[in-house]
Amino acid sequence: MSQVLIVSDSKSNTKLISSELMKRYDFEVIIKESADEAISFLEILGEVDLIISFEMLKGEFSAGKICEFLNNNQELFPIAMPVMIVGKLQIEYPKKHEIITQAKLEDIVKYAGYILGKEKSFIQPVFVIEEPKEEKVQEKTTVFRLPSKEILNQLESQGGNISNQEFNAQLVSMLVDYYGVLSCDLYIKKNQSDEYEVRFPKGVKIEKTDFEKLKIKGIRHLYSKNIENTNYLNDTNLHFLNKMKSLGGDVEVSLSLGAISYDILLDQIKSSKFDSFTIELIKLSLKNFDYLVKSEKSLQSFLQAVESKRFLYSFTHAFLTSYFMYLVFDKFSWSKDHSKNKLLYLSFFHDMALSNDKLIKKHHKFLATKSSFNEEEIKVVLNHGDQMAIILEKIIKAPKELIALIREHHGSFNGIGISETLNPKVYPLSKMFMVMEYLVTYYLDIMEKKNTPGNLLTPEQYNIFVNEVNTKYSKFNYLEVLPFINDIIKPVIVKNP
Ligand SMILES: [Fe+2]
Ligand SMILES: [Fe+2]
Q1: Of 3, 201, 435, 464, which residue is most buried, by most CB within 10 angstroms?
Q2: Rounded CA gap, 36 and 217, in Å?
Q3: 218-233: per-residue pLDDT in tens?
């Protein structure tokens, strides 16, 4: 029988947690009300299987004090005991398990069961990120939520059904930082339907360099069997979320993690896999996007990454559109009707239902390249605005305008089809967005084709863009954005003549 020591001064909490631990898992529970009491107990009676301590009790860092005691008395406790902290731990301790302070008692019980091997999986509860304070008040706080089971089933039947298939994609980039002994078989396959080429068997110690080599070869995904991978996926997800949470103002790292998380989200949306990990990842990615878009330093780093083709097109396109829109947005009289958050969300989500980097890239020139799409791709492209709006309506409680903006990003109100003519009635913001997407597509196209170093357009190339925009967007007020592009964006992406 496993022994659990709970350290808390809240009688109601400990009563509930301990009775559930005993009832569900047959654990033996010892309760102490402070770090000092817990330490005296451990000094006399030695080891337990798990310590659950709240971060702070009666104004003192109780969890920290207990871990410090364990660190300093390794001769008494040669094998580190797992400590589950409700909150954060400021010091290093080899076997710490943190859970957010807002966690429900049910989550604390389940997490304890998971740590001691009684639960197969555990997903960290989601916490709510506060929206940036400087946003205008008319923009209601955006709330993200996990869709109900029925809605998840609906989404799955409307969109991807990959989760029903035998294999699940794992991102190589994500695994690079989570190497170690494999807890399930991993397969290298070109895509899910292919035969695998190489299998890394379960139990093998895999080195970071092995994953790095795969990345260099251009392999983005590894696959694991659906039935085998739950724990593995939970572990890697948790690891990645922790990395995202600890982002602290380093532009390079933020860009890299932003690109990886965008890629992960594309996969999640493709397979209609919405769990608390997805929702948490969306929040953290948006927060990171927000930080990057507001940072003056990120553009240069980003343009260098574009030149060296470090990131997938999907992230590059979304980020650049967002960055440029941020630069000019305040110039418009109507901008006061929208918060800048809406810009961010629009750029971030608008193409996500395409779920595939190649489609995201190609569909921006859909009318010219239509003949190169197969039937299924055409269907996906024509519906992606509507499809993404449907998904967002299920997971986000946001102003209706945001959903409408996502739908009309190719000029049609209902999000279906790619409008061949200019629609006078879409939001002014949508018009600006379409012209900005045109600029970003044009810029990225030139960066991809050119074979000389540098990430700036020549003045001639820029003039071609201006002429094209003047012809294509000549009606209504689509062209309102062009003078601002000339004044504000041109100096950062065009070489001095
Ligand atoms: Fe786009
Ligand atoms: Fe699109």
Answers
A1: 435
A2: 55
A3: 888 888 887 776 777 7
- The tokens for 276 are 């608390």
What letter represents residue 253's amino acid? V
Give the pLDDT confidence of 80-89 residue by residue, as tens digits.
Answer: 899 999 988 8
pTM > 0.85: no
Q: Which ligand is nearest to the CA of 318?
A: 1
Q: How far is the CA of 227 from the centre of ligand 2 (A)?
A: 34
**How far is ligand 2, taken at its centre, from the CA of residue 322, in Å?**
14
Ligand 2 midpoint to CA 186 (Å): 33
Domains belonging to the chain, first-starting first, are: 3-115 (3.40.50.2300), 144-160+272-493 (no CATH)
Which ligand is located closest to the Cα atom of residue 319? 1
| Whether pLDDT at 268 is above 80 | yes
The residue-averaged pLDDT of 467-476 equals 94
**Which residues does 73 contact at the CB level (< 8 Å), separation at least 6?**
none
Task: Say how many Å lie between the CA of residue 360 and the centre of ligand 1.
Answer: 7
How remote is the CA of residue 22 from the centroid of ligand 2, in Å? Answer: 53
State the distance from the centre of ligand 1 to the C-alpha of 263, rounded, in angstroms: 15
Decide: 489 and 324 in contact? Cβ < 8 Å. Answer: yes
| SS3 per residue for 441-493 | HHHHHHHHHCCCCCCCECHHHHHHHHHHHHHHCCCCCHHHHHHHHHHHHHHHH
In the chain, % helix, strand, coil (3-state, to 5) comes to 55, 10, 35
User: Residue 406 in contact with residue 395, Cβ under 8 Å?
Assistant: no
